[in-house]
Design a protein that fits this description.
alpha/beta, 2 domains, Rossmann fold, about 35% helix, six-stranded mixed beta sheet
Length: about 280
Amino acid sequence: MIAAFPSKNGSFRFWPLIVAGAFALSACGSDEPYVGDDVKPRFVSLNPCTDAILVEVADPDQVLALSHYSVDPQSSSIEPAIAAQFPVTGGTVEEVAALNPDFVLAGTFLAPATRGALENMGFAVATFGIASDVGESAVQVREIARLAGHADRGEALVARIDSSLAELDAVSMGRKNQSAVLWQPGQIVPGEQTLVAQLMQRAGFASHSAARGLGQADHVALEQMLADPPEVLLLAGSEQGQRHPALESLAHTQVEHFDPSLLYCAGPTIIRAADRLREIRRAGA
């Protein structure tokens, strides 16, 4: 499929559009053959997860702006020094239009009014959902890389992710599973269908919370944790209960910090999350 988008000089450039189940892309369409030059498309990303993939697979001058989330340590999935190299926006239509990108990358929760306004102005909007497994993540990486004109970089990133996962699988070989709780911000636990829960399983961690009937975003009080502790407690939050000195009294529990920035995105974040889980598993029994 080929679509035509306005360039800065008012003429049209033609970019091939790849539409897959992992994301949806809407824009003005054209059946004409590709007639673009060697200029690569330029992007504004409005989502921290697409930010993280984009900076890995695009040239720096293709990235007109990232989301403001990526310069906030509490929500960024990009190393601060890398995020600081790029402008950011607050995600408003006016900011995006002023940058005149070829593509806008966003999450599927992008406000319909914002999406409609951008599309009415002729901007192509590609939306990506939260990857629930490694396969979905690979699809997203490949699609963003191909839109950027660097399919080879997408394949290279997928290969790096696969390599990190192979190392994660290897760390638990020949060792018994350990019961573990990932205690997230807000003192909640992840569901078993989340990507981070699947990574924990690959590291040889059995979900202590799921075994007790808890699911996605269920709250765990400090008292519950102290009364029925797991073998491994991954602290990814900073609520008062999660900082309580009583946790230090859990003599038979390995308590480890898990950076909240590793919780929500896939793509290159998988590599960092897998590395951290491997460190934690090696430090335990």
